[in-house]
Design goal:
This is Cytochrome c5 family protein. The structure is a single chain. The chain is mainly α and 150 residues long. It folds into 2 domains: 9-39; 72-146, Cytochrome Bc1 Complex, Chain D, domain 2, CATH 1.10.760. It is 55% helix and 0% strand. The chain is built from 6 helices and no strands. α3 packs across α6 (136-146). The termini are far apart.
Length: 150
Amino acid sequence: MIFRLLLRDFIMRPILTGLILVSMNGYAADDYERQQIEQRIAPIGQVRIQGETTAPAVAQPVQPAPAETAKKEPGQEIYEKYCQTCHRDGVAGAPKFRAEAEWKSRLAKGIDGLTTSAIKGLNAMPPKGTCSECTDADIKAAVEYMVPKS
């Protein structure tokens, strides 16, 4: 009889309490994850079909900041979007942006030679870097933008 009381009060009760708490915690985590997923996939706007008479309630377009409207140098946009990932920090031996010491030996090829290397790929750099849709003129403009100004 005493053994049953001990078993029930001191062994089984804490085990059952623990199981209940663990299962409740799992439910709370599942609920939290579900809420996070719903939040991530919630629609952020509405589609407006041309010719539709009633326009959906949509926020007005945001005006770009003055810094964004500043005229960029030719090749700057390509560099910022595709090239800076490696050339900003010198990843895998890539010459850093406008670092004269790193470009010095490469400049012997001239802009056309550097452009050809960039188009065909060189060492760790794949052909056209990461910009497969860039034209040869885009690549040349990016190369001219990256090399040191002298």
